[in-house]
Design a protein that fits this description.
Largest sheet: 7 strands, parallel
CATH topology of the largest domain: Rna Polymerase Sigma Factor, Chain: A
Oligomer: single chain
Shape: globular
Strand content: 5-15%
Number of strands: 11
Structural class: alpha/beta
Bound molecules: magnesium ion
Helix content: 40-55%
Number of helices: 17
Mean pLDDT: 94
CATH architecture of the largest domain: Orthogonal Bundle
Radius of gyration: 21 Å
Length: 404
C-alpha cells in the first residue's frame, strides 16, 4: 500500500541525497546529522535550522557546510552570530519565513520535519505544498491536522515517510501489502519508567524520575510523553492518518524490551513485525533512502542475549492518556487538537515543577472535556482551537499549581 518511489530519489545511486532539516538542534535533528556523519558518501546537508540554539546551529554549520541556515528567533538578527554564519559561506535566514524557505528548497530531495510540538505544523505544510518527500518526525502535526495534511500531500504529489520508530516499523511491515488485507495495526510501547509503579508511587514521581527512560535516549518533551504514555496516545492518532486505517483497527501492546518496534496483523492470521535495536538512526536512514536500505554500522539485536520478548495489555487506569488517544483517533476533529495542546502545556508545567506528574493527565482530560462540542476542519481553525485549548489548559494548570 506504500505508493511508488519518488522519481527524484531514484537518482540517489548517482549522487548524495540532499537533506534540509527543520529543527537540527533537537534530539532527532542530531541523530539525522549522525546518520550523515556515518555515510557522507550518501548524504549531503543543504539546510539546517533551529528555534533559538544559535550556538549549536553554528557548530553544525561549520561541520556540515549547508548552503542555508534558519533561526526562528529574530532577536538574533543583529547578534555576532550572523557574521560567523556568513564567514562559513552560509546564508542565514530568520523567523517563520526562513523556515518556510528551507522547507521548500529546490535543492532538497528530502525535508526532515523534526521540530517539537504543534509549531512543526506550518513548516511541514510548506514542505508538503512544495511537493517534497518529507521524513516526518514531528508527530504533532499529524495528530492535530492529519486529515488536512494527508489531503495536501496527495494534492501536491508530496510524500510523507515516518521517522517515528513505531510508524517506520508499520510502514516497513506494509511494504507490498494491500490495505484491505490488514486486520490490525499493533503499536508497541515500552511502558516507560513507571510501568510497574502503583498509583500511590506515581503520585510522588519527580521530574528527574520521569526524564530517566529505560530504553530510549530522546528529547525532554517526548521522554515525559513516554512516561505518561501520552506518546502512545499521540502515536495512535498519527497512525490513523498516516496509514489511512480505521481507528478501531489500531491496538497498543506493552513490550518492555523495545526490540519489536510495531507489527501489522493480516486477515489470514499472519503477523509481520519489524525488529531492531532502539536506535533512531535506523528509522531515520530508512526514511532518507526508502525504498532502498544502506549499510549502517549498527548491529541487529542479539536475540539469544535478550532471551525473551514479552508483551502485555496496556493499563488504561494508570495510563488514561493511551485510552484518550484511541478515542481521539476515533472521533477526530477538535479532540486530538485540544488533547495535544493541553499536553504540551502540561508537560511544560511539569518540567517547570508547577504541577505533579499525575496532574498532566488531569490537565489534558479536563481541557479535552471543556473543548468538546467545537468543530474544526481547516488549518486556521486548527490553529485557533490549538490556541484556545492552551488558554484553558493554562487556567487549569494555574488552579492546580495553587494547590501544590
Ligand atoms: Mg515512537
Amino acid at each position: 500500500m506504500n505508493s511508488a518511489p519518488d522519481e527524484s530519489l531514484n537518482k540517489t545511486t548517482q549522487r548524495p541525497v540532499n537533506i534540509s532539516i527543520l529543527g537540527s538542534t533537537g534530539s532527532i535533528g542530531k541523530n539525522v546529522l549522525d546518520v550523515v556523519r556515518m555515510r557522507p558518501d550518501r548524504f549531503s546537508v543543504v539546510a539546517i535550522s533551529a528555534a533559538t540554539n544559535a550556538e549549536l546551529l553554528l557548530r553544525q554549520a561549520a561541520e556540515f557546510r549547508p548552503k542555508y541556515c534558519a533561526l526562528i528567533d529574530e532577536n538574533l538578527i543583529n547578534s555576532s552570530f550572523a557574521n560567523e554564519f556568513k564567514g562559513l559561506g552560509c546564508a542565514l535566514l530568520y523567523g517563520k519565513e526562513g523556515y518556510k524557505f528551507i522547507a521548500s528548497l529546490d535543492e532538497a530531495d528530502v525535508v526532515v520535519s523534526s521540530m517539537v510540538g504543534a509549531s512543526g505544523l506550518i513548516p511541514t505544510i510548506s514542505a508538503v505544498q512544495a511537493g517534497k518527500r518529507v521524513a516526518l518526525a514531528n508527530k504533532e502535526s499529524l495528530v492535530i491536522a492529519g486529515e488536512i495534511l494527508i489531503e495536501l500531500t496527495q494534492r501536491h504529489n508530496a510524500m510523507i515517510i515516518p521517522v517515528d520508530s513505531e510508524h517506520s516499523a508499520i510502514f516497513q511491515c506494509l511494504n507490498g501489502e494491500n490495505k484491505s488485507d490488514v486486520r490490525n495495526i499493533i503499536l508497541t510501547a515500552s511502558g516507560g519508567p513507571f510501568w510497574e509503579w502503583t498509583k500511590e508511587q506515581m503520585a510522588k514521581i519527580t521530574v528527574e524520575d520521569a526524564l530517566n527512560h529505560p530504553n530510549w535516549q530522546m528529547g525532554r518533551k517526548i521522554t515525559i510523553d513516554s512516561a505518561t504514555m501520552m506518546n502512545k496516545g499521540l502515536e495512535v492518532v498519527e497512525a490513523r492518518w498516516l496509514f489511512g486505517i480505521e481507528a478501531h483497527k489500531i491496538r497498543v501492546l506493552i513490550h518492555r524490551e523495545s526490540i519489536v518496534h510495531s507489527m501489522v496483523s493480516f486477515k489470514d492470521g499472519s503477523i509481520i513485525a519489524q525488529m531492531g535495536r532502539p536506535d533512531m538512526r535506523i528509522p531515520i536512514a530508512y526514511a532518507l533512502t526508502w525504498p532502498r536500505r544502506i549499510e549502517l554500522n549498527i548491529d541487529a539485536p542479539a536475540l539469544y542475549d535478550i532471551g525473551g520478548l514479552n508483551f502485555y495489555q496496556p493499563d488504561f487506569e494508570r495510563f488514561p492518556l493511551i485510552k484518550l488517544g484511541l478515542e481521539a483517533a476515533k472521533r477526530g476533529g477538535i479532540m486530538p487538537v485540544s488533547m495535544n495542546a493541553a499536553n504540551e502545556m502540561a508537560v511544560d508545567a511539569f518540567l517547570n515543577k508547577k504541577i505533579t506528574f499525575l496532574n498532566i493527565a488531569e490537565v489534558v482530560l479536563k481541557t479535552v472535556e471543556k473543548m468538546d462540542g467545537n468543530t474544526c476542519s481547516t488549518i486556521d481553525e486548527v490553529l485557533y482551537y490549538d490556541g484556545l485549548s492552551r488558554i484553558y489548559a493554562d487556567e487549569i494548570i494555574y488552579n492546580l499549581s495553587k494547590r501544590q
